[in-house]
Amino acid sequence: MALFVAKRLLMALATVLVVAVLAFLLVHAMPGSPGAVSLGAGASQDAISQLNQQLGWNDPLFTQFFRWLGDAVQGNLGNSLIDGRSVSADLASRLPVTASLAAGATILSAILGIALGVTAAVRGGLLDQAIGGFVGLLVALPAFWVGIIFVYLFAVQSSIFPATGYVPFEVSPQDWAMSLALPVITLAVGGAAFIARQTRASMLEALQQEHIRTLRATATPTWKILYVHALRYASLPIVAGIALQFIGLFGGSVIAEQLFAMPGLGQAVQSSVSTHDAPAVQGVVVIATVVVVAVNLVLELATKFLDPKLRAS
Amino acid sequence: MIPTVAPAPADADQAGSTTAAGAPVPGAGKAVLARFSKHRLFASPGAVAGLVWLAALVIASLTAPLWLPFKTEDQDFTAVLSGPTAAHWLGTDELGRDILSRIFAAAAGTLGTSMITVIVGVGLGTILAMAAAGAGERTEAAISRITEVMMSLPGTVIILAVIGAVGTNIPMVMAILGILMSAGIYRVILGQAKSLQSQLYVDAAKVDGVGPLGISVRHVLPGLANTIVVQAALIFAVGMLIQAGLAFIGFGPPIPQPSWGGMIQGASQHVYDAPWMMVPTGAVLALTVLSANAIGNALGKAPNTAAPHLPSAAARRQRAKAVAAIASAAPAAVTQDGAAKGTLSVRNLSVGVDSTGAGSGVRLVTDVSFDVEQGTVLGLVGESGCGKTMTALSLLGLLPSGVSVTGGQILWNGRNLAATTDKAMETVRGRDIALISQEPMRALDPMFTVGYQLTATIRRLRGMGKAEAREEARNLLEKVGIVDAARILKTYPHQISGGMAQRVAIALALAGQPKLLVADEPTTALDVTVQAEILSLLRALVTDTGMSVVMVTHDLGVVADICDQVAVMYAGQVVENGRTDSILDNPRHPYTLALLAADPHANHANDMPERLATIQGQVPQPKDWPTGCRFAARCQFAGSACLEPVPLLSSGAGTGVVRCVKADQLAVEGMDWLATDVPAARAFEITPTQNPRTLQTIVEKDLA
Ligand code: SF4
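Predict the joint structure of the above. Result:
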C-alpha cells in the first residue's frame, strides 16, 4: 500500500510537470510577445523589445522554464501582463470560488446521481425506464442553456436566488450559499446524470454477482442485500466515476462562472486567454492541474481503500 | 458546463457492447456489423428518430442557401427580439436576425467540426488500444499510464490554453479535443481488443505468419467495429456540447458567423427582456445531442445481460403474482404423505422461462418428481443442460430472474414451497434449506471478511448475540475441518484457497442448522484431492447432523461415494430414479447406461473396459425437445416406439422408476452401451424420414 501511494504521488508530480511544460510551450506559441501584450497597441517597437528583454523573453526557453519553475515552487507565478498584479495572489483569491463551485456540484451530483441510479437498478420496470429516459435527457442538455433557464425561473420569474455574483463565505455564509445555489445546481444537472448512469450500471453488475445468491440463500433481508452488500460492491466504480466527474466539473466551471459572473479560476482562464496574458494563462493551467490531480489522487486512494484486495496487498 | 473530457461512463449499455461483438467470425466483421447495426438500430424508436433528425439537419443545413427565408446577417429592425411570428417562425435576436435561418446555417459547421473530434479521438483511441493489445504487456502498461495521465487533466482548461496559442481555429481545437478524449476511448476499447487478440483464430493466424499489423487490421478491428461506432456516436455528442460551450464563452467562430453556442450566449444577455430567444437554439442543440446519444445507446445495448441474482422490485412483484396464481390453482393439494418431518417431496415440478422477455415460454424442467427422506442423500445426475441446477434452485425459490416454477409442487414438511412467496421463503432459506454452490470463491462476498459474513448470518438465523455468534462461527469453521479458524475469520475470501473457501461456504450454509442442504456441483471447481476431502466432510455432516442433501452432479463417482438415491435427469426430465446401488449395478435406462460406460470411475461393477464410450451429440435445446423420448437422437437402442411420449414406469427394483420403452427388453437381454460404432442391427428401426435427426454414432476413445 505504501508503495502504491508513493507510485501514485510520483505519477501525480509527473503529470503536473508535464502540464507545466505544456502550458509553458503553449504560452510561448501565443501570438504577440509579452512586451507587446503588456504595453498595448500604441507602444513603440523599442519599448516593446526593452520590456521583452527585461522579462527575459529572449533567454533560451530552457532557462526561462526553469526560472519560472523555480519561482513557481516558491509560490510566485509571476505578474499579469495586463495589470501587473501577482498571478499567485489573484489565483489564490479565485480558487475558493471555483473550489466551492466544483465541490458543491460534485457533492450534489453524487447525492442525486446515486439516488437515481440505485432507484433505477433496484426498482426496475417502468420506473427504471422513466429514470433512464430522464437521465438521457439531462445528459443531452447543454449546461449553459440549463443555467439560463434556471436564471429565468429562479432569478427572473421568482427571485429566490441571486442571478449573478459571488459572496465570499467570510462576508456572509448565508449569502455565500445563496450565490452558489444556481451555478451549483446548473453544473450538477449533467453531473448527476453521469453518476446516475454509472451507479445504475454498477449496481446491476453487483446484483449479478453470485454471492448475492448466497446472501439470499441465507435469508439476508432484501434491504441489506441491496444497501449493504450490493452498494458496497458497486461503490468502487461509483467513486471512480465521481472522481472523473470532479475533473469535468472543475474545468466545466468556466461556463458557470461566465454565466453567473463568478470571479473564479474559469473566468481567469477565459479572460487571460482572450487578452494573451501569458503568465496568467500559464499559472491558471498549472494551478487547475494541481487541484484536479490532487483531488483525483485522494479519490483514487479512497477507491483503493474501499477494495479489500488492494488494501490487503 | 463543458462536459467532462472523458467519454460517457461504463454504462451498462456500453459495457454490454463489449460482449456484443465479442466473438466475431474472422473476416466477416463487416457483414456482422451491418446485420447487427441494422437490427438493433431500427429496433429502437429513439435511434430511428435520431437518425432522421440528424439526416434532416445535415440536408437542411447544406441546402440552407436555397430555402432559408432570410440571410443569416439580415437585420430586421422592425422585429428586434421578437417571438415567433409569421415572418420569423422562431423569432429574432437582438439585431433582428432570423433565428431559424441562423440555426440551420450554423448546423453543418457544428456537425462537421464535431466529426473532426470523432475521427481524431476514436481513431487515435482505437489505434492505441490495438497497439497495446497486440504489443505485449510492457507497451500496454506504458500506453495505459499515458492515458491515465491524460484523463486526470483538466481538459477544458487545457483546451482554452490551446485556444490562446492557436486562436479560435475551430477545426484545430476540435482535433486537439479529440486527442484529449482518445484516452477515455482507449480505456473502453482496450479490454475488448485484448480479448479479441487472445482468440484462438488469432493464434492460428500468427502461426500462419500473419504480422501484428495484419492481425490487428484483419482480425481485431472487425470485432471492434460495433464498439467503435458506439463510441463515435457518443463522442460526437460530447464534441458538439463542448464546441457550443466554447462558443458560449466567446471562443466560437468569428462574429457575425452564427454558432449555436454563440446564439445561446446572445440569448443569455436577454433573459430579462426576451426569454424566448434561448428556447429554439437550446432545443435544437439538445435534440441533436440526444439523437447522437440515442444512436450510440441503441447500438451499444447489450443483447442479453446476465440476470441479476436479486431481481428488481418490479420483477419481484411479477413473481409474487405468479406464485399467488400457483397457490390459488392448487390450494388444497397439499397432501399428507409429504408431511413427515424433514421430508422433501417434489411432485410434477415444471420450470420455464417467463412469458415476458426473450425466450418466453421455453420449458426448462418438465414433470420432475422425487423424494428425499430425512438423513439421506439424493443425487441429481446428468450432463449440463438437463435442468439439474434449475431443479435444485427451485427448492430454495432462488431461480434466476425471468425463470419460474410453472407447475407442480415442492412439498417441504407438507408445505408447498412452489406456492410460497419470496418473503415467506425467507423463513425457510438458511434455517430449513441451505445452498452451497459450485464456485466457492464467487459464492462469498469479496468485500467482507469471512468472520463478518459468518457472524452476521449466525446472528440472523439463530438470533444470537455478537460474542456468542463469533464463538459459534469459530466452532462452525472447526466443524468443517478448518484448523486455524481464528485466522480464517479475519481473512477476505480472495486470501484463501478454493478448497478453504468451499469449507467456509459450507460453514455458512450450516449457520442456520438446516435440515436439507442443496449442493450444486460442490466439488466440480476443486482439485481432485480437495474434492475427496469435501465429499467426506459432507458425508460426515450427514451422519452427524441427520440432515438430508440434494446433490447436483455430473460425476457418477460422486454419486457412488455419497448418494443413497439417484435421479438421472435428461433434457428436463427424470429418466431413471432409484436406489444408488441398484442403479449403478443395474442401470435400466440407456442414458444411465451410457453415463456409466463413459465414466472411468463408475465402472466398478465390471472390469475396466478397454475403451471408454462417449455419448455422441449434445443434450437438445429445450425448443428442440421431441414429443417422444428426448434421448432418441443419441440412443443406441432407439426404435420407432421411441417416437411416442414415454411414461415413467416402475423399473421393478423397489420404488425405482425408468422412462424407456425398451427398459424391460434391455434388462432381459443384458445389453451394454457400446464403446464402438453403433452396429447397424441396433439402428435398424429408425429411418431418416421418421426422425429428421440423424442417428449419431458412438465415437471410440482410447483410454490412453
Ligand atoms: S425410449 Fe427408446 S430412444 Fe428412449 S432411451 Fe429408451 S430405447 Fe432409447
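The two ends of chain B are 69 Å apart (CA to CA).
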